[in-house]
Design goal:
Elements: H1 21-39, H2 45-63, H3 72-85, H4 89-104, H5 111-121, H6 123-132, H7 138-158, H8 160-163, H9 173-178, H10 183-192, H11 197-217, H12 226-248, H13 265-273
Helix pairs in contact: 1-2, 1-3, 1-4, 2-3, 2-4, 4-5, 4-6, 5-7, 6-7, 7-11, 7-12, 11-12, 12-13
Keywords: Transferase
EC number: 2.5.1.21
Organism: Aquincola agrisoli
Length: 286
Amino acid sequence: MSVDHYENFPVASWLCPPHLRPAIQAIYWFARTADDLADEGDAGPAQRAAELADYRQALERAARGDTAGRWAPVFGPLHQAMRRHALPLKALQDLLSAFEQDVHNPLYPDRDTLLDYCARSANPVGRLLLHLYGIDAPAALSESDAVCTALQLINFWQDLSVDLPRGRHYIPLADARRHGLTPAALAREAAQGRASAPFRALTAELTGWARDRMLAGSPLVHRIPGRAGWELRLVVQGGLRILDKIAAQGHDTLARRPALGVADAPRLLWRAWTMAPAPMPAGRPA
């Protein structure tokens, strides 16, 4: 299970119920296409913003049943999914707003501003999947948000060697300052491909934050029945395994980007199998 790009969420895998695969594929291609418009190729910010504005209009037309145009292969299947499963338009609009924000490449003053971004770039995916499974309990939604935010944060700290040289600074400035680091200093270390002791201490703190979010959301695996629950176990354990790998290399993700491989599969399967429900509070009926 990869912690990378929009492969962070299940994309119609063999564990997914067949009747949901078209909808999950449609959500994936909607998000992936928007991500590419925001981040791929040689277009400048103005052109990217204009393309995403057109894409937003196409989404709103698709919600009304009009899927013609440049992105018909994306919005035709998405409209079918919206109609068949009553997908919430707001979740799709929230995703798009995060891609629009990426075009402007902002700095994040503190964790709250980064969490606001994650609430739109990652959390809607989990909520859309829960919607497809008919799960809407407040506790489940909260846990889903925690897992999705954790995956997004893990992706950030995993990809520092890629993002910093491109001028993408997801590290909250308040955290960096606490370790005596500025965006310019972070970029210099990334260019050198070697993390200083303060940089490693910062990364350790940020990965600890991501781990706490993932563990807070992990009870969700016991709320989702069948194969989907097992797939989520692998998603959770894949994210935690990346954090283990970051720690094992001294919290230096500039020298080497940690990734999962075939050799990790037995460990992930065992950890997924042995995920136990939280103990019942005293006096509560079983």
